[in-house]
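Action item from last week, closing it out:
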Amino acid sequence: RTVDNLLQELKTVRSRITEFQIVDDNFTLNINRVKEFCRRLIAEKINLRWSCPNGIRADIIDEELVTLMKKSGCYLVNLGIESLDNKVFNRIKKGEKIEDITRAIWMLKKEGIIVIGNFIIGLPGSTFKIDMDSVKKAKKLGLDVALWYPLSVYPKTEVYKEYIQDKNIRFITDWKEGFRYNFTNQLKLSFEKGDYTQEEMIKMFFIANLKSKSYGILLDPKKSLWRRGLDLVRIILRYDPLLLPCHIWNAFNILLRFRKVY
C-alpha cells in the first residue's frame, strides 16, 4: 500500500480514534517507505499515537528512523528477540545478531519509546537452564516488558520437520493445542523434548514471566480485577513464593504506570 493510501485512510477515521496500530509482519522492510510515512504524519499533522505491537526487525532501523517514529506519534514497539543464547539464536536463522537487538533497544529507549521484547520457550537447542539464562540476560537489556511464550510448532515448517524426525521429541497433542499458552487453566504444549519436559517448559513459562514482571500474560483478562489478583497470588505461591511481597508491589505499580500510558 502506498503512503498516500495509508494517509487517506487515517484522515478518514482520525476524528473517531486516538491511536492506531501497525500490524505488518515486517513494517521496516523498506526503511525509506517508513521514513516517508513518518514524515507525512508529521507534515500533515495527523496527531495520532501509534504502535507496532506485531514487531519490527531490529536490524532494519537507524537513529533517523527512530527519531521520526517518535516525532510522528509512535510510543511503543515490539521486538522479536526469541532467545539470548547465541547458539539457539543462530539456529533459528533470524538473519540478525543479538548485537543488532541490543543496539535497537538503545536507540528506541533513547527516544522514549516503550520497548517490548518477545521470547520463545522450547526452541531447538534450548533447555530449562538455557532459557533461564536468557531470562537473566533479558533483565540487562533495558526492556520495558519481556514476554515469554512456549513454542508453537506449525506443520510443514523447518522446526516441525526437525522435531517430527527427532526421536528425543514427543508430540503430546495435536499441534493446534500449542496455541493455548495463556492463562492458568488453558496452558497446553503440543510437544516435549527428552532434555526439556512438558512440566519444565510450563514451569519456565510461569517463572520467566514472573521474573520479568510480565504478570498480565499469566492472567485471564475476562476475569474481574480481584479474581486476577487471586490467580496471581496462587501462581506466585507455586512458582516464586519467596518473592510474593515483591511481586505484589511490582504488579500494583505496573498497573498504575500502564493506566497512565494507555
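Closing note: Strands lie at 19-21, 49-56, 74-82, 114-121, 145-150, 169-171, 191-193.
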